[in-house]
User: Fold M23 family peptidase from Euzebyella marina.
Amino acid sequence: MQKYWGLILVLTLSLACKEKAVQETKQVKDVLAVAPIEKPIVKHFGFNLDEFTVKLDTVKRGDSFGELMLQHKVDYPKIARITQDFKDTFDVRRIRVGKPYMILKSRDTTETAQVFIYENDAINYTVVDLRDSVRAYKEKKQVKFVEREVSGVIRTNLSEALLEQGIDYMVTHNLANVYAWTIDFSMLQKGDRFKVIYKERFINDSIYAGSETIDAAYFEHNGKPIYAFAYENDSLKSLVDYFDESANNLRRTFLRMPVEFGRLSSRYNLKRRIRYYGNKIRPHKGTDYAAPIGTPIMATADGTVTESTRRGGNGKYVKIRHNGTYSTQYLHMKKQNVKRGDFVRQGDVIGWIGMTGNTSGPHVCYRFWKNGRQVDPLREELPKAEPLAETLQPAYFDYITPIKDQLDCIAYPPEPVEEELLAGELTTLTE
Assistant:
């Protein structure tokens, strides 16, 4: 009998617990039914857009900041103050056609502009806050960096090997910079192969915003493997160079040429006959590299820009002082990308191929000075860059060990089916 009483007690407790759970669930549902669900506040550019009437548009031809503000009921004194007091932050003369902007207007009958947001590029934007005391400031969108591994086998050229995989062209540009002195990219062989580790930028986790510089790479050219690892070799100047697995610097003092894939069209020649001048003999103290208009022109070494101007037959040009011994000059540019006083690093884009000045075709005339005298850069014995300092090498080897393992584990894409084999298979099937 005692056994049955125990069973009854267990059943009673079980029913009581279940009834309590049902009551608690009902109470929770009642609370949820009564309590309003708060809508999360979503901010764009740091503002809650629900507090404003929002106008989205792009700068049209003929638009000016002043006109846009007047259309949205901003008075002249405020416009004048922005134009005069904040020109270092927001130069109203430099808004460009096609650039997106947003105007946040008051949510009343006046709909007066409260905030103007101008998107300088995919990441950077400028805010002009027109409320109360006017102010202007620059900000960046939140960017997520995602590491990516790619590899390829050369069938025609490096660009095709990357572009056919949907890779940003800047990866091609950056990879060519990494190996600019160790590999002649005009002499790549079919079967050369590479692996690359780099980061891609994404805005709001989904909008692609470009690629970063290369973190590490492997290139096998003519059967010779060449590793490259980015490493900061000067913490005071935050300078990063590329070194191989033995800590040798891949960079040299000067690049071979100022364009990545240009064609050597005319060498330094003091007795050259120049077609532009009626085939008369005139000294040609430059080295010409032909390339399509708009091709980027790179600084061949670190240095300071001493001239960025236009003059006579030189057209638009840039001149760089590298040290007390060497200077270089780049002529006939379509447009310069640097100004006097800028410090540039080897490989930085300083302008673009054009046809300004005296020239019969698109090219860059590359001039090279040594101790104040123009010389032929292709005949100069130029110094190599220093290897990584011995004091930094132990930390460097520790740093690159896992990255080298990561590179080694990256697989190459499968070889495409040869057209001849495919044609043969189709023939067999039809027979």
The mean pLDDT is 84.
